[in-house]
């Protein structure tokens, strides 16, 4: 894989996840993510990964058409979107699709997803790209984006030629995987004893 700036999964610079492996397995159970779902996520990867740029176009179009969302990528100096920042995040977002579909959950994956949460929160936002943009993605939007990130995937899955049953199972697996990740990403927004 070509190095993606700011993509640090598996690197020693990423702190260890603040939850145990047992707690992570419990979280997977809470979102109903089972072995069958992992197979369907990988099947979804066969569909989504070759079309990842098209999918990113849909997502970036959605974010770009909503000023309250694009604000997270705006420079503080003039309030305009930082195109270099958007481009760097897009590369990581594409890798995120691939990682989500690969469904290779291990300690490196878990550690990195807590880092992703920090990069949305004021405790780590802007540092990977050394930019001076908005300091925090509001928690309400982080959670709310589960819907468009999930709903916009379904048309891609439907055009795959897979059976309606396979499409539904791929889509359900995607929803569970995205919800699992957002449940991890919210960590820096909470008090440790409440997480």
Overview of this protein structure:
The protein has 195 residues and is mostly helical. The chain has a single domain (24-193), classed as Orthogonal Bundle (Globin-like), CATH 1.10.490. 58% of the residues lie in helices and 0% in strands. It is built from ten helices and no strands. It has helices at residues 21-30, 35-48, 52-64, 67-70, 83-102, 107-120, 139-144, 146-151, 154-158, 164-185. Helix 2 crosses helix 10 (164-185), helix 3 (52-64) packs across helix 5 (83-102) and helix 6 (107-120) crosses helix 10 (164-185). 25% of the residues are buried.
- Number of domain units: 1
Query: Mind telling me the CATH superfamily name?
Result: Globins
Could you state the order of secondary-structure elements as H and E? HHHHHHHHHH
**Which overall shape is indicated by the principal axes computed on the Cα atoms?**
globular
Counting DSSP H or I runs of 4 or more residues, the number of helices is 10
Annotate the secondary structure layout.
Elements: H1 21-30, H2 35-48, H3 52-64, H4 67-70, H5 83-102, H6 107-120, H7 139-144, H8 146-151, H9 154-158, H10 164-185
Helix pairs in contact: 2-5, 2-10, 3-5, 6-10
Descriptive tags:
mainly alpha; globular; Globin-like; 195 residues; 0% strand
């Amino acid at each position: 894989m070509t190095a993606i700036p700011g993509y640090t999964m598996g690197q020693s610079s990423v702190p260890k996840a603040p939850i145990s492996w047992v707690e992570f397995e419990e979280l997977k159970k809470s979102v109903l993510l089972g072995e069958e779902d992992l197979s369907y996520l990988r099947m979804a990867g066969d569909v989504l990964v070759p079309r990842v740029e098209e999918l990113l176009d849909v997502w970036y179009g959605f974010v770009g058409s909503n000023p309250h969302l694009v604000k997270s990528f705006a420079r503080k100096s003039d309030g305009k979107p930082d195109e270099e920042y958007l481009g760097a995040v897009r590369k990581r977002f594409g890798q995120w699709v691939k990682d989500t579909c690969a469904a290779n959950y291990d300690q490196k994956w878990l550690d990195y997803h807590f880092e992703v949460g920090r990069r949305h929160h004021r405790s780590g936002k802007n540092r990977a790209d050394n930019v001076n943009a908005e300091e925090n993605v509001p928690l309400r939007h982080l959670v709310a984006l589960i819907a468009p990130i999930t709903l916009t995937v379904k048309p891609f899955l439907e055009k795959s030629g897979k059976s309606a049953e396979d499409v539904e199972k791929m889509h359900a697996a995607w929803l569970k995987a995205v919800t699992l990740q957002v449940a991890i990403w919210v960590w820096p927004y909470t008090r440790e004893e409440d997480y």
